[in-house]
Amino acid sequence: MTVTPNAKTQKNTGRNYQCDSADSSERLGSSETASSADGAEQNRADYDDCSRENLSESTQRDNSTVGKILTRLKYIEDEYSSYIREDRETLESRLAEAKRREDNFKQVIKELEQDISDLIVKTEKL
C-alpha cells in the first residue's frame, strides 16, 4: 500500500493507495461469528461506561421533539377552533339576515294582499 501525503497539511491521510489484488482471496481466511455462549468476547459497546449525559441529551432531544409535536397539535387545535367559531358566527349572521328578509318579505306580501283586497272591494262598489 502506498500512502500519499495531503498537499496542505503534509499528513498522511491513507485515502489514496494502491493495492496489489493478486491472490487476495487466498489471504482472506474464514470468518466465524463469536457469541457469549462460547466464551468469546463480543464486539459491542459497553453501556456501563456510557455517560449519563448522553442519555440526558437523548431525553432532552426526545422531550424537545414531544414539545414540538404538542406545540403543533395546540396550533392545529387553535386554528380549527378559530375556523369553526368564525364559520359559526358567519352562519348565525347569515341566518339572522335570512330571518330578517323573510319577515320583510312576509310583511310586503301582507301589504300587497291588503292592497289587492281593498281594490277588489272598491271595484265591487262601483
Automatic annotation (TrEMBL):
<feature type="coiled-coil region">
    <location>
        <begin position="88"/>
        <end position="122"/>
    </location>
</feature>
<feature type="compositionally biased region" description="Basic and acidic residues">
    <location>
        <begin position="41"/>
        <end position="55"/>
    </location>
</feature>
<feature type="compositionally biased region" description="Polar residues">
    <location>
        <begin position="1"/>
        <end position="36"/>
    </location>
</feature>
<protein>
    <submittedName>
        <fullName>Uncharacterized protein</fullName>
    </submittedName>
</protein>
<keyword id="KW-0175">Coiled coil</keyword>
<feature type="region of interest" description="Disordered">
    <location>
        <begin position="1"/>
        <end position="64"/>
    </location>
</feature>
